[in-house]
Amino acid sequence: MVRVNNRIYAPEIRVVGPEGDQLGVLSVREALDLAREEGLDLVEISPGAKPPVCKITDYGKFRYEQQKKAKENKKKQKLVTVKEVRIRPKISGHDYDFKADHCREFLEKGDKVRIRMMFRGRENIYKNKGREMLLKLAEELGEEVVIESPPKSEGKQMIMVLAPR
Predict the structure, then answer these.
(1) CATH of the domain spanning 5-75
(2) I need a surface site. Which of 38, 81, 116, 157 has the fewest CB within 10 A?
(3) Each residue of 59-81: pLDDT tens digit?
(4) Angle CA(63)–CA(68)–CA(70) in degrees, nearest 5?
């Protein structure tokens, strides 16, 4: 929350003028008087600084600028999604290739891939075979892949997360 005008409690503040020029360290009263002479508001910009920094500006315009900056920053953020591919230890060769192609497509788009190997019944005995299959898949996907989390066994399943380099 930004403090404005009479809500600024610091005894002394560093004041920046409407055009960005430094007016020095003043008391809040003096700064408020200067702001009123200009017909503008006194807005606390940097409350953590010693002394706090305040600017003489139009508060409505200041809020608009802040919202605009926040919107721009939000646009620039890349949302990383995690896609999931499920396989079993007794997967056929064609199905394995098909799933590997899916993983490759997801990674090329910039998404992370969670590969979930599910064990049923007596397949649980062959967890080492499942681990080898997951590592082989990561190796086949090539150099553009980073193993973010190695194969981990969680109950009746084993999970590995891959990320694009």
Answers:
(1) 3.10.20.80
(2) 81
(3) 999 899 999 999 998 888 877 78
(4) 95
